């Protein structure tokens, strides 16, 4: 009788923990996960002069092979295209329960700031930055974040979250003895977790429009689902404190998707609005991405793209038009599967 009661209590605790985690996409999701599993947070950092721009990505990779398990912090210099991948023993990854508070070795990451102490390698960054005024993707019971109702499913290959559309940066970083003042700069935070990156995807993000506070994040990928796969997409345009959502799960659809070596032209619409995005590709650098066996995928990312964005009502009335600079852009895999 007692063992049955304990089993019921444990199952109830597990369910409560699962619900709590789903409702907080920003937190670590790897507690008690079996490999393969990865989780990473993406911090985009651009100073006020717009001369220094970095992506800093802390995370962890869990493998069936203990030799492949490790924590990491990778860095992309968006100006030069240089990149560095710093590895740490998995035991040096620590995530506070009930909060977004992650440590990888001597490096510390939260929604309100980061502390870096990366030594050696190509991009030895150190320093402390504080973030102010961030706004996450709204979370509700029906749609716990950018994944919508898909966020409740436990068998997806990859999950996504937006921790902050846009925020102000205070503080400074040091790169190999060169001080960089980031006070007055802008930042963005998102994350991914699951078993593996998709086989093909396009991702773009920018929060450097003429009107501060506006942010576009958009991705389309091949989604494995119950023995089949389909091209699914999620897009958010945050403008004047309003979120315009376009996603497969909202009933939106792609009207046009054209990908060339120079640009990505993507048009989507739903029952109310039409969104046109035209991204111009730029030079970038290589990042590590997860597969089911290791962090070996070579992912080309640029922070030098620009994205022309136009949002209209279906009757043609314009609600927003602008060009986002310093855009992150990734175009990866067999792109024919996205159409």
Briefly summarize what is shown.
Helices cover 6% and strands 55% of the residues.
What does this structure look like?
By secondary structure, this protein is mainly beta. The model is unreliable at 4-10 (pLDDT under 50). β15 and β16 (242-247) form a beta hairpin. It starts with a helix and ends in a 6-residue tail after the last strand. It has one domain: AttH-like fold, CATH 2.40.370. The longest helix has 21 residues, at 2-22. Helix content is 6%, strand content 55%. The protein has one helix at residues 2-22; strands spanning 37-46, 53-62, 70-77, 83-88, 93-95, 101-104, 107-110, 113-117, 125-132, 158-175, 178-181, 185-194, 200-206, 215-225, 228-239, 242-247, 253-259, 263-269, 273-280, 285-289, 297-313, 318-333. It is built from 1 helix and 22 strands. The strands form 2 sheets. Strands 1, 2, 3, 4, 5, 6, 7, 8, 9, 10, 11 and 12 form a 12-stranded antiparallel beta sheet that branches. Strands 13, 14, 15, 16, 17, 18, 19, 20, 21 and 22 form a 10-stranded antiparallel beta sheet that branches.
Residues in β-strands, percent: over 45%
- Count of domain modules: 1
CATH superfamily placement: AttH-like domain
Number of helices: 1
Distance between the termini: 56 Å
Question: What's the helix and strand layout?
Answer:
Elements: H1 2-22, E1 37-46, E2 53-62, E3 70-77, E4 83-88, E5 93-95, E6 101-104, E7 107-110, E8 113-117, E9 125-132, E10 158-175, E11 178-181, E12 185-194, E13 200-206, E14 215-225, E15 228-239, E16 242-247, E17 253-259, E18 263-269, E19 273-280, E20 285-289, E21 297-313, E22 318-333
Antiparallel strand pairs: 1-2, 1-12, 2-3, 3-4, 5-6, 6-7, 7-8, 8-9, 9-10, 10-11, 10-12, 13-14, 13-22, 14-15, 15-16, 17-18, 18-19, 19-21, 20-21, 21-22
